[in-house]
Amino acid sequence: MAEQVSSVAPISSDRARKVRRLIGRGRRFLSLDAKVAFGGLIILIGLALAIFAPLISPADPLEQDLMSATLPPIGFAGADPAHLLGTDDLGRDVLARLLYGGRVAFTVAFVAAGLAGLIGTVLGLVAGWYGRLADTIVSRLIDIWMAFPPVLLSILLVAVFGSGLHSVIAAIVIIDWTRFARVVRAETMAQAALDYVTAARAIGFPRLHVLLNEIVPNLWPVIVALLSLEAGIAVIVEAILSFVGLSVSSDTPTWGGMIASGRQILHQGWWVLAAPLAVLFVTVLAFNLFGEGMRRTLDPVMRR
Amino acid sequence: MIVSVINRLVVAAITLVGVGAIVFVLLRVVPGDPIAMMISPGASPADIAALRARYGLDADLATQFWMWLKALLSGDFGMSISLRRGVLSLLAERLPATLELAFAALALAVALGLFLAVLGTLARRTVCEPLIDALNGLALAVPDFVWALALVLAFGVFVPVLPLSGRINPSIDEGFVTHFYLIESLLRLKLTAFADVASHMAMPVIALGLPLAAVIVRLLKEALKEAMVQDYVLLARLKGMSELRLILQEALRNAIGPTLALTGVQFTFLIGGTVIVERIFSYPGIGNMAVDAVINRDLPLIQGLVLMFGLIFILVNLAVDALAAFFNPRLRHG
Amino acid sequence: MSPILTIERLSARVQSRDQEILSKVSLSLERGEVMGLVGESGAGKSTIGKALLGILPRDVVITGGAIRYDGRDLLALPARERRQLLGAEITLIPQDPQTALNPGRRIEAQLTDGLRMKRGLSGTQAHDKALALLEEVHIREPERVLAAYPHELSGGMRQRVLIAAAFALEPRLVIADEPTTALDVTVQKQILRLIRSMQEAHGTAVVFVTHDLGVVAQICDSVTLLYGGTVIEAGPTANMLVHPGHPYTRALIDACPRYDRPDAGLHPVPDGVISAMRRDLSQRYGRPV
User: Fold this and answer.
1) How far C38 CA sits from the closest chain A CA (Å)?
2) What stretches of chain A show up as alpha helix (H) in DSSP?
3) Digit-coded pLDDT (tens) for A58-87
């Protein structure tokens, strides 16, 4: 009897082990990719809505209609079914303005994050890999940058450049390249201290070759994650600048501009503030989830 | 030890001068004439020239910078163009409001962060942990700007229990001697005034403190969990200590050092955040004043404010290093 | 007198790997006796030590058997009573003095925790007792050591402190979990001698977990040899080292370097011995070992 059991048991426990391992792997895969998929999906939907805003928008975002000013969203007393999310104090359709505001937000997010990432990464690589004078200069610059409150600096820069989309993007790039430079510099130094880099150098590869072929591939997870986080930050900064009244001209709808006017008419029409705030919230969260998920998915060793 | 302190101070001074120089150049090489904003449309060119001379804007850039630096070292921050008052006295008047806000937010963040990190460590490997983690991730991802506005909606509109703007109800006149309203009203036991100031600060403090609390929870919880599997915790557990006592007495002191260092950096972000949060709540601190100064191109005031922010940032970093040394016996002796 | 500790047919299993790591292990320890629990890594010796202290990893469950301490079954004891015993009557000398002392607390605080919590001593009483303990483990300048942080002490000093802490509450059973593995060879011998003398002075029984037969020969009264979670051989040290009953024991003894006979050379355990033993054990327990 005992013999029988023993001859069967290992096989069944083997199978159970395999199944369990599969479940574990599946769960890990799901949980990692759920963040990427969910965040990515929201970003894609937002992007599509912004791109196709002229086609799907229920109304002209600039068309004022004082007769139907501060109408609440549908579902509330006095709502007009023509205005799904209500209207603002000038009778402009909130949904339409949200859709068009997304165009500014996503433009700023992608362009500013991309440029800041490019500049910051290059400077970080140079500082971390070539060291010496380059490192001293970049590190000192980062220190000085860190001594500015970023919001104040962005307001300052936009005030200096004059308002407009280009200035907003330029301000974000000028401020936030340090985020990339700091991390990339530190990671480069950490990688440079590892044996595989020493080995590659010992073979006699030129420095630039080692940097691009040995070190940079290991930095991608970090850079992609930072890019996504930075896109979220850029959306916020744009909203802040619009809120202060320094972003694009006031006749272009922006989320920040909507928030600012919503703040003014808080008690007459809370939805003018709530709607763009909710959109901002979801967008930032999506970029964060995507970045967080990407870092883990792309990182073979799951650092941190 | 002394050498490293001196070294740090020198670096700090260089950084400050760098900050000053960048702002100075930035504001002068770009278009935008502060004088144009303060003159009446009918002013003659001679009037404009006189004004320029009065604010020292007629000299060349290097001379202007040198004059400014010299004045600065003698304690003269210049005159605000838009408010027509000395920059230094404006700063002295507004800085306390911001300091009260920032430190209250820091206190909230540290208390909340410590509490939740310990709670999360107690609840590790239970169903509560992913819940705490998820909520914390949310607080971490969403910035103070969004929290502030969400609070405005929640406690200003839907459940209107908190004042939406300002620092104190104008009808309350306690004849404050200092500009530290919160501290002074407490010390003088003017409890009505204290409650009013506190209620005005509640929303901005929560908005500023929440993201920092989330950072503390994430860092500290990871560090605590790491410490809790160390041999010395095992030995202490054998001695019969409760789980809570293990966390507080054994793990916390070893976990808190790294968290503290990063909290310091994050605190500078919090101070930076006061700029927009003060704006949202029309709170009369230096952040709100800074936005006005930029919009009005009030060069002397902007320079003074930026230097002030830079100085605060550097002081915070120095304080953090000192605290980190205090919490790590190795650094203290080594 | 009855034995201080008996383990009866103790079995344990790692859940995640679905693997039995202890199979019906039985052993018995007299009062004041030092028993070596010997085996390769994975033999189950540490699992027994952890089971005694109630600090098994979550993954490991006890599937059968009993641990009787002074007549009471530790496994069946209510949690509160067991906590009362552990750390007072049953204590641990840990493996790595590097990680077993809290880097953020002074030696005095760590040494007197138990005295204050379990014995209710006041600060000064605990201080005096701690001083006496440090003197007993031959630490010079005990006052200075009490005020020190762990990183200011050498590895050997730290292990002495940990031994003092283990004996602070007059335990009746000490589990020494490879306490010399992390130390320099020169320090090892002093520490072994110290544990032995402390044990004799206090009449404490010791379970000495180790993989080193050389250590066993120096300190242990009896030996229990484990392989693959089962007891291979047990008995008085002298007896077993001189007349090993099992081929594996024989091979292990041969594999030890002989300082007294440097010309004898080293003999790794022959593969044949291991495979024969595995076959034998598999048959006995009806599972692969």
Assistant:
1) 28
2) 2-51, 53-56, 94-130, 132-146, 150-161, 165-192, 195-203, 207-210, 216-244, 255-264, 271-298
3) 878 877 777 777 778 877 877 777 777 888
